[in-house]
Write a structure and sequence with these properties.
Blueprint lengths: L2 H7 L1 H9 L14 E5 L2 H15 L5 E5 L11 E5 L6 H8 L7 E5 L12 E4 L12 H13 L5 H12 L11 E6 L3 H16 L2 E6 L15 E5 L7 H6 L4 E3 L5 H18 L19
Helix pairs in contact: 2-5, 2-6, 3-5, 3-7, 6-9, 7-9
Length: 291
């Protein structure tokens, strides 16, 4: 079994441990205007966090790629996400915050360099990974925030167990084009699922806001495509996509558990293609730039 496979399988237990740490991220539910930043997977997690927080009316929340974050705006708090705690762009963004703005770092590594740039650090060591590809850290951070916002995440963890035990919703090798669609807080999850498909399996994958899919991207859908809708599909979209000949995937599991399914599909496709999912080409665990 690959390291990535083991880390994917560990997610239900990791999620429950992460939920138990929700009090450490009380700022997520404390009101006020917050910016959430990250790079790559962590940016997609930030997108989900921002949409979750706003959907509950807790406070205005923006998500930014760290290298483009306008943190001189009047935010009440900045939350940075970095699995390794070493990502160069995240450190630069934290140091460029407006003076006096509190900063929180969510990471998997205690004592990481970015901890010096934040007043508060939440360490999810149980979610750290040996694989280059992020799986359980990303989903554990979303669970942490959902729990901090008052949600009982037990049902999501149970759905993740079902996602691990069930047959794959898409057979690897039957498609060469993968599309992930989301709405609200699942938009970030869609982008993350597409990224996992590219990273692990080097496959053609895309992600869109579900209601935007008709506005151009659907033109390349066909019988070679698998179009996966995370969460409740918008009215009429399933039938519109089915008419292209694409395989439509959607289900009743928690959207985060559906991400687990997508991770399994990407892993299976990588293995079928003879690729090493633990060490994708051209990627490293963290992007650390010369200063």
């Amino acid at each position: 079994m690959s390291v990535t496979a083991s880390e994917i399988a560990s997610q239900p237990a990791v999620w429950l441990e992460a939920a138990g740490r929700a009090g450490e991220l009380a700022v997520a539910a404390a009101g006020g205007r917050i910016a959430v930043i990250g790079c790559g997977t962590s940016y997609y997690v930030a997108m989900s966090i921002a949409a979750l927080r706003e959907s509950l009316g807790v406070g205005e929340t923006d998500a930014f790629v760290a290298s483009e974050a306008p943190l001189q705006r009047p935010y009440d708090h900045v939350i940075a996400i970095s699995r390794s705690g070493t990502t160069t762009e995240v450190g630069r963004a934290l140091r460029g915050c407006r003076e006096g703005v509190p900063r929180t770092l969510v990471t998997a590594v205690a004592g990481s360099p970015l901890a010096r740039d934040a007043e508060h650090v939440v360490v999810l060591g149980v979610a750290d990974e040996a694989s280059v590809v992020q799986t359980r850290f990303a989903t554990a951070v979303v669970v942490l925030v959902r729990a901090a916002l008052g949600e009982d995440v037990g049902p999501a963890a149970r759905d993740a167990e079902l996602a691990l035990a069930a047959d794959l919703p898409v057979a690897p090798g039957e498609h060469d084009h993968y599309v992930f669609l989301g709405s609200g807080w699942t938009v970030g999850l869609a982008f993350e699922a597409a990224l996992k498909t590219r990273e692990m399996a080097q496959a053609w994958s895309e992600a869109y806001v579900a209601m935007e899919y008709r506005h151009g991207p659907i033109s390349v859908a066909g019988d070679h495509s698998a179009v996966w809708m995370l969460g409740e599909p918008p009215a009429g979209l399933v039938s519109d996509v089915a008419r292209t000949g694409a395989t439509v995937v959607h289900g009743m599991l928690d959207p985060l558990a559906q991400v687990v399914q997508a991770q399994r599909v990407a892993l299976a496709l990588a293995e079928m293609r003879g690729l090493d999912p633990d060490r994708p080409r051209n990627l490293t665990r963290s992007v650390v730039l010369e200063q």
